[in-house]
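Hi there, hope your week has been kind to you so far. It would help a lot if you went through both lines with me. No rush at all, and the record is pasted right below:

***
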Amino acid sequence: MLVRGDARWLWYALRHPLAPGWLKPSAALLLLYLVSPLDLIPDTIPIIGVLDDLVLLPLAVRWLLSKLPGALRADIDRRFGEAAPGAAQGSRRV
């Protein structure tokens, strides 16, 4: 599953010694957005209010993973046996 894999990669990247300094505050802001009553589209609007969280959060996680340093993405690739988001096409395992 795409979202589950991204969450695993992010969790691993957060604990990695090569993780950039901006990664933990960025992940904390994503969690804050998830639990905050203030949303881009309020959750009180049926379906659409929850749908923005279901779309924006995975996109934000994917974007964060694509901004990781190359050495960290290569380590994630080796660890999980598949290319991390944002990795160069030539680095994908077959």
Notes: The chain is about 60% helix and 0% strand. The radius of gyration is 15 Å. The helical segments are 2-15, 23-35, 48-66, 70-80. Residues 90-94 have pLDDT under 50 and may be disordered.
